[in-house]
Amino acid sequence: MMEMFLYIDGDSFVHRLDPRTKLALMLLSFALALSIKSFPFLTGLLASVLLYGAAGGVLGNLRRIRVVLLMIALFSVVIWTLAYLSVHGVVYGAMVAVKTDLMIISGMVFLSATKIEEIAEGLVRLKVPYRGAFAFSTAIRLVPMIVSTSYTVIQAQKSRGLDLDSGSLLQRIRRHVPLVAPTLVSVMRGTNVFSMALESKGFGYSEERTTLLELRMKRDDWLMLAGAALLTIAAYSLSGSVAYGAALLS
User: Fold this and answer.
1) DSSP state of 2
2) 102/30 Cα distance (integer angstroms)
3) How far apart are CA 167 and CA 10, in angstroms?
4) Backbone dihedral region of 166: left (phi > 0), alpha (psi from -120 to 50 degrees) or beta?
5) pLDDT tens column, 8-66
6) How far apart are the C-alpha atoms of 232 and 110, rounded to whole Å?
7) What is the rounded distance in angstroms from the CA atom of residue 5 to the CA atom of residue 209?
8) Would you tell me which of 4, 24, 33, 168 could form a disulfide with 148, CB atoms 3.0–4.6 Å apart?
9) Is 32 in a helix, a strand, or coil?
10) Is the pTM for the entire model greater than 0.85?
C-alpha cells in the first residue's frame, strides 16, 4: 500500500523545531539556490541540506523521488551540454541540476519533518489569513491523496488484466488515458466528503479560533536562524569571488 503522506513521525532535533523556523530555512535555501552562481557553494549547500535531513531522520523519503531527481540531473546536463558544446556547458548543466534538486530535496525535508497542522498554524502565526493557511495545508493534503488514488486505480485495473507495462512509450501513455476519469471521480468524491465535514463542523462560522498547538520559538530555533543568517551573509560575500556560470551565457 502506498503511503499517502510525506510526514515521518519522530522526535528528532529537526522535528522539534518551530514550523516557522523550518519554513524560513526552506525558503532561505530556495533563495540561495536561485541567486548563488558558485558551483562549490551550491554543492556545499546541498550537503548541508542532506545533513539537516539526516539529523531529522527523514531522508528515507528521498527514495520515493530518486528517479525524479536523477532524471532532472541528467536532463539538465544534456540540455545545457547541447546548448553549449564545451566543458562550460557540462559544468553549467550540472550547476542547474544541483540547484533544482537542492530545492526539491529541501522541500521534501520540510514536508517530511513538519505536520500539516503545524504548517497551517505556523502560517497563521506569520499573519497569513486563516483561510489562506488552511487552503495551503489542504492543497498539501490533496497532492498525496491524488497520487494514492491513482495508484489504487492502476492496481485495480492491473488485477483485471490491463497491461500497462509492455509496448512502446506512446502505447503505454494511451493505456493510461482511461485511468484519468476514475481517478478524478474518486478524488472529487473525497473532496466532497471533506467539504461536507467542514460544513458540519461550522468552518468559517467564527473568526475567533482556538488551537491545540502551542507554538513558541525556543533557543534552538533562534540558534538555527542565526546560523542560517550568518551562512547567507558569508555566501553572498564569498560567492562573488568564486562565481561561475554567469559569464557562460553572455
Assistant:
1) -
2) 8
3) 43
4) beta
5) 888 899 999 999 999 999 999 999 998 888 888 888 899 999 999 999 888 888 888 88
6) 19
7) 26
8) 4
9) helix
10) no
